[in-house]
Design brief:
This protein is an alpha/beta fold. Helix content is 26%, strand content 36%. The strands form four sheets. It has a five-stranded parallel β-sheet. This is Response regulator transcription factor.
Length: 219
């Protein structure tokens, strides 16, 4: 799952991004900002994978703001001015969307971001520590079959055991590598452990996990 924010001083532009983002199942648009400084401050305390960033803004340009971001943050510039494209790519922007942009073009940029995230070496650490009522438990990614969300709790199904933690899927997805994918709003599965894919479910060992229509195209 990609996490993102959008920063643009035009209200209509933010509404377009919100509308497009709602149609991309692997993208979670956490917040939008018409004030560039507020958006930058949000990202410092709650980092996201991707920022949709306007260039021509009154207080600080998107070009200058992009130069202040952490190097691992992906940036997709959104602007009505094609003259900024070269400068944008000089800053290693992932993509450049020229307004008005279609849903298909927006999806293309999101897919590029997801592909880039999957290539990052941070995902090869091999494990994560999960907080439980009994303390921190080490969970190896290779042993984690799937996760099921129930309210503010998540059950992690491992080889031969279960781990229950008080956490939302949003929080968990930030800890897991991108080969963990949603098949349903309540299920997150290890794509590498899927043994069979059917129309409405996937099978991992003896478990059959539902596939909802919203997530059916991303297995």
């Amino acid at each position: 799952m990609l996490t993102a924010i959008a920063i643009d001083d035009e209200h209509m532009a933010l509404e377009v991004i919100k509308s497009h983002a709602a149609k991309v199942p692997f993208l979670e648009l956490e917040a939008v900002f018409s004030d560039a400084i507020r958006g930058f401050d949000y990202h410092k305390t709650q980092p996201v994978d991707l920022i949709f960033l306007d260039i021509n803004m009154p207080d600080i340009s998107g070009i200058d703001l992009a130069g202040m971001l952490q190097t691992e943050t992906m940036v997709v510039f959104t602007t009505a001015y094609s003259a900024y494209a070269v400068k944008g790519f000089e800053l290693n922007a992932l993509d450049y969307l020229l307004k008005p942009f279609s849903l298909s073009r927006f999806l293309q940029a999101c897919q590029k971001a997801r592909d880039w995230k999957e290539l990052q070496p941070a995902e090869t650490n091999g494990h994560v520590f999960i907080k439980t009522s009994e303390g921190q438990i080490k969970v190896n990614f290779s042993d984690l079959l799937f996760c099921e969300a129930t309210g503010n709790y998540v059950t992690l199904y491992l080889e031969g055991e279960k781990v229950i933690t008080r956490m939302t899927f949003k929080e968990l997805e930030k800890l897991l590598p991108s080969f963990f994918i949603r098949t349903h709003r309540s299920f997150l599965v290890n794509k590498n452990r899927i043994e069979k894919i059917e129309k409405h479910q996937v099978q991992i060992r003896e478990h059959r996990i539902p596939i909802s229509q919203s997530y059916s195209g991303f297995l």
